[in-house]
Amino acid sequence: MANIRVSSHPLVAHKISILRNKNIKPKQVRELMREIGQLLAYEATADLPTKPTSPLESPLTTYTGTELATTIGLVPILRSGLIFVDVLQDLIPTSRVLHLGIFRERLSLQPVEYYNKLPSEPNVEQVIVLEPMIATGGTAVAATSILKDWGIKSRIKFITICASRQGIENLIKNHPDVEVFVGEIDEVLDDHGYVVPGLGDAGDRLFDTPHA
Q1: Smallest Cα–Cα separation from 100: which of 77, 82, 73?
Q2: What residues have CB less than 8 Å from 166, skipping those under 6 apart?
Q3: How is domain 4-47+71-207 classified at the architecture level of CATH?
Q4: CB 113 within 8 A of CB 100
Q5: Of 120, 118, 74, 117, nearest in space to 97 by CA
Q6: Which residues contact 113 (CB under 8 A, 6 or more apart)?
Q7: What was the pLDDT predicted at 104?
Q8: Residue ranges of the Phosphoribosyltransferase domain (predicted)?
Q9: Residue 135: how many CB atoms within 10 A of its CB?
Q10: Which of 64-73, 113-122, 203-212 has the lowest mean pLDDT?
């Protein structure tokens, strides 16, 4: 799985260890997810293409600057993917946000699309999908298929904090060209589709909603 980039940053590992703790409060969950998202975003954007700017003026002389040479779309998977939006927009102010709502049906564990705010035609050249957890991989596979059908031709990137081995393999099996930037991969996916030890339900922990 050459396109799977597991972070080796010690701060990512440290923050995920704290995030796993079931006793931390939603405020700290949100803070940790944003911090981890920022570190993963740094890695995910390292190869973005650039181009020189027109001549600019520094306090001392004229210089040629650097700017992004591509338009970036941020695709948060509702609802938990929203936690990464501000982080990525701070890093890439010119990015556009394209929302997708996909939930996992409780019994079948199959993805169900319920919201799609993609324009009729692609208005970005590259996309970064924001999804804090990849469990079975079904939602990630569905999101990638939707984006490809929409017309995205470049490599699709994912930023995720924690994923199961099975979920990652499912995603790469169906879309071997995607690139995933992940904090940690857990080996176990239980019978209910939860990553173990995982993070629990990311949306419930972020928004302090009881798990039904």
Answers
A1: 77
A2: 136, 137, 189
A3: 3-Layer(aba) Sandwich (3.40)
A4: yes
A5: 74
A6: 100, 101, 102, 142, 146
A7: 77
A8: 6-209
A9: 27
A10: 203-212
Contact status, residue 72 vs residue 94, Cβ threshold 8 Å? yes
Does this model's pTM top 0.85? yes
57 residue type, one letter: E
Q: Does 90 score more than 90 pLDDT? A: yes
The model's pLDDT over 149-172, given as tens digits with 9 standing for 90+, comes to 999 988 899 999 999 999 999 999
Residue 129 in contact with residue 156, Cβ under 8 Å? yes
HEC letters along the chain: CCCEEECCCHHHHHHHHHHCCCCCCHHHHHHHHHHHHHHHHHHHCCCCCEEEEEEEECCCCEEEEEEECCCEEEEEEECHHHHHHHHHHHHCCCCEECCEEEEECCCCCCEEEEEECCCCCCCCCEEEEECCEECCCHHHHHHHHHHHHHCCCCCCEEEEEEEEHHHHHHHHHHCCCCEEEEEEEECEECCCCCEECCCCCHHHHHHCCCCC
Specify whether the CB–CB gap between 4 and 180 falls below 8 A: yes
Each residue's pLDDT tens digit, 108-162: 778 889 999 999 999 999 999 999 999 999 999 999 999 999 999 888 999 999 9
The single residue listed with the structure tokens 């972070």 is 7
Q: What is the pLDDT of residues 172-183, one digit of tens each?
A: 999 999 999 999
Whole-number percent of the chain with pLDDT over 70: 98
